[in-house]
Amino acid sequence: MPLPGRVGSPGSVGGCSVRDSHDLTTMVTELRGAPMLAGHGGAPPVDLAAVRDVLARVSRLATDLPQLVEADLNPLIARPDGAVCVDARVRLEPRPPFDPYLRRLRRPAAAQEG
C-alpha cells in the first residue's frame, strides 16, 4: 500500500518533529489511511515497524544533512513483509554546516569603543 506524506524541515517528517518512537507511531496511526494499514477489508496488516523505521531514517538524514531541503519518497510501499521506497528524490541547497561546539569570541564592549 503506498503511503502519503512529505518531509518538511530538517529533523521532521511531514512537518512534524520526530523526537522518539512514540512520535513515529503517532505519525503513522494518524494518517487518513491508517485503518488500511491495520488490515482493512480483509487485507493483511502492513509492517508498521518498517514504516516507522523509514520515517526515522529520513528524519535522521534531515538532521545530519543540513543541506537537505526536500525529500520525496514516492511511492513508499508498505507490505506485511516490510516497506520499499520505489523512487526517491532529494533536493539539496548549499548551507553552512551547523557546529554545536563552535564558539564565537567577541571583543568586550570597552575595547570596541576605544
TrEMBL record:
Q: Which Gene3D superfamilies match?
A: ATP-grasp fold, B domain (3.30.470.20)
Query: Which UniProt keyword terms apply here?
Result: Ligase
Name the segments for region: Disordered.
1-20
* Signal is among the record's keywords: no
Q: A Gene Ontology MF term for this entry? A: ligase activity
Top-level taxon: Bacteria
Compositional bias ranges of the Low complexity kind? 1-18
Quote the PANTHER family the UniProt record gives.
COA BINDING DOMAIN CONTAINING PROTEIN, PEPTIDYL-LYSINE N-ACETYLTRANSFERASE PATZ
Give the protein name, as stated in the record: Acetate--CoA ligase family protein
Organism field: Kitasatospora purpeofusca
